[in-house]
């Protein structure tokens, strides 16, 4: 590269830098037309419960909320599900993908350097731009028309992010990555509560079968007693068939309950992601006592406690960054490209001092007429953001509704349970009276056993209430976020 060409390059560089400086203080030629006011998020007073919804205990769920039941079987099942469930694998893969996207976007704003090397065997046209080189006159340095051109060196490029477009794109990618992390916590909550629901559904059905077995024993004795009386001609066959019908009804209930256990177990296996033999056996255990608790107030605390809401807030925050990037696209962009290396028409001259080549190319891009593309892009980014805000507002209302409905249902179940216990006491009094008569020889054993049937029926009703209360307690845990806590919570700042 000779001194004259270097001087001309220096002048061109100064010219470009001057133009870049002038245009950087001027607004872009493409004008912003679609930049409406963003929608607002839900008001704080709407994130609360009615005054008549409360439980005996206050508080939020713990992080590993299921351990409060002190059930080793449940702990093992949930741990297995959180490790191996296909839904968890998908969620973790989405997080890894989002992190890769962040690195990809961030890399675009850094200095890019590449090594270049090329070899070109060419025949120069005598009528083209390099026509004189097509002559073969060695004395003049012309050895045409065939040449073997070689280029080797380093090329570099750098985008100058004056208006923050690339920074906004990186921030948007980070927002999506954070949203995916929150979504992973939401999947963990979904899986853990589903496993607990299925597990206690199985345990409740086990206890139901135990009660049905007791009832079946009484029904079987009644059939035998009526058969004996009928054989002696002491009563009509009608009583025997009625007793047998009751026995068959109980057997049908047992078969249905056993089928339900198999169905729940298969649902558990699909949820955990285990094979036919890898799901451990689930042994019968007593149902735990209700430990449901409801915060005295929800307010904005619920937003930080619900991983699904935090994920949506991160998506909204990312949409604001995309709006910033769409706005920055209206302004001039700058980049610098450079090359240092060797370029020669003859390979023998490639690595000589005279074959050195240096290029420094400042670039300017200024949108003037784009056919409305930039405004359409900005308008689309704004509308997508507004849609996310409205979806978030609806999700918040749904979350408050879920907590309120579940808390109200638990209140009702607690009252029903207390009434049912009193009902059992009353029915048990009649059973005990018949038992006392039997002990004194004033009534038959059949009458004493049949007096137990109403008590068993009421115990089945109480078991159903306890199972429903436990299911609603797990649902409330899910509605309250299952111990998740965003620290610090995402703050929405519309732009």
UniProtKB/TrEMBL annotation:
**Does the record bear Signal in its keywords?**
yes
Q: Which InterPro entries match?
A: MdtP/NodT-like, OMP_efflux
The family database entries (Gene3D superfamilies) matched by this protein are listed as: Outer membrane efflux proteins (OEP)
Q: Which keywords appear in this protein's UniProt record, sorted alphabetically?
A: Lipoprotein, Membrane, Palmitate, Signal, Transmembrane, Transmembrane beta strand
Please indicate if the UniProt record lists Lipoprotein as a keyword.
yes
Subcellular location, principal:
membrane
| Mode of membrane association | Lipid-anchor
Q: Which residues form the signal peptide?
A: none
Q: Which domain of life does the protein's organism represent?
A: Bacteria
**Compartments where located:** Cell membrane; Membrane
PANTHER family for the chain: MULTIDRUG RESISTANCE OUTER MEMBRANE PROTEIN MDTP-RELATED, OUTER MEMBRANE CATION EFFLUX PROTEIN
Q: Name the family.
A: Belongs to the outer membrane factor (OMF) (TC 1.B.17) family.
Q: What is this protein called?
A: MdtP family multidrug efflux transporter outer membrane subunit
Name the source organism: Paraburkholderia kirstenboschensis
